[in-house]
Amino acid sequence: TWEEIKKQLDDVGNGDDIHKMVDFIGGEPFLAFDLLKKSYDYLEKYASNIVQYEIIFNGTILNDEILNFIKNNKFCIGISLDGNKESNQWRMLNNGNDIHDIVVKNIKTIISNCNPYRLCIHFQTHLHNIHLLSDSIDFLYNIGVRDIVIGTVMNTMPITNYYIKQHLEQHKIINDKYTDGLYPGLSLETFRDLRT
Questions:
Q1: Distance of alpha carbon 158 from alpha carbon 91, whole angstroms
Q2: Which of 120, 170, 162 is closest to 140 using CA atoms?
Q3: How many helices (H) and strands (E) in the chain?
Q4: Integer angstrom CA distances of residue 91 from 41, 88, 103
Q5: Interatomic CA distance for residues 164 and 190, integer angstroms
Q6: pLDDT digits (tens, 9 = 90+) for 35-94
Q7: What is the pLDDT of residues 102-136, one digit of tens each?
Q8: Backbone angles phi and psi of 45, in degrees to 5
């Protein structure tokens, strides 16, 4: 409810001098777009200590109203996408349909309408996609992504010797490409997010 959200927002914007970043995190926070807009407007009016906003979503919902909202306000955008289609096959809609093509189309729309450095892809590696990491970085770079955070799914999938070996091999390939100048302008972080 709005009352519950407002209480949380009041705690964030409590008037202290500490600069804060506010994350709107999904699944898909745009399913409650009206509450998200209301929350943003409320913080902009009553909280002077917010320096940045981020929306982290699965990238499946994007229309002109949402795009304009992102573009015209001080939002960074985080989208969960695990690289190329094969690497991302474990992410799907509730009905079981693949989301990759939808998300890639929306990423391209955001990049063409906003500063591409406001977009960050959250890429989760696991036992079934670690061998595709380098190919997936190539794919993301080639569609215009310039900020990628690589994390590891833990606890729900084991970190095996195979995973560790593939992780090291894939990072060596990526590092070689990076130092050879094949990724100009790319920001690549590993293990900023560990997911359990």
A1: 18
A2: 120
A3: 6, 6
A4: 32, 6, 11
A5: 14
A6: 999 999 998 888 777 778 899 999 999 999 999 999 998 889 999 999 999 999 988 888
A7: 999 999 999 999 888 899 999 999 999 999 999 99
A8: -80, -40
Which run of H or of E encompasses 33? helix 33-46
Task: Write down the pTM of the prediction.
Answer: 0.88
Where on the phi/psi map is residue 74: left (φ > 0), alpha (ψ -120 to 50), or beta? beta
Q: Are 127 and 157 in contact (CB under 8 A)?
A: yes
Neighbours of 131 (CB within 10 A): 18
Give CA 90 to chain center in angstroms: 16
Distance, in Å, from the CA atom of 1 to the CA atom of 178, rounded to the nearest integer, reads: 47
In the structure encoding, which two tokens stand for residue 186, read together? 């790319």
* Model confidence band, residue 15 (pLDDT cutoffs 50, 70, 90): low
> Residue 152 carries which DSSP code?
E
Residue 37 token pair: 């807009």
Listed in sequence order, the residues at least 6 apart from 54 whose beta carbon sits closer than 8 Å to its beta carbon are: 21, 22, 23, 24, 75, 76, 77, 78
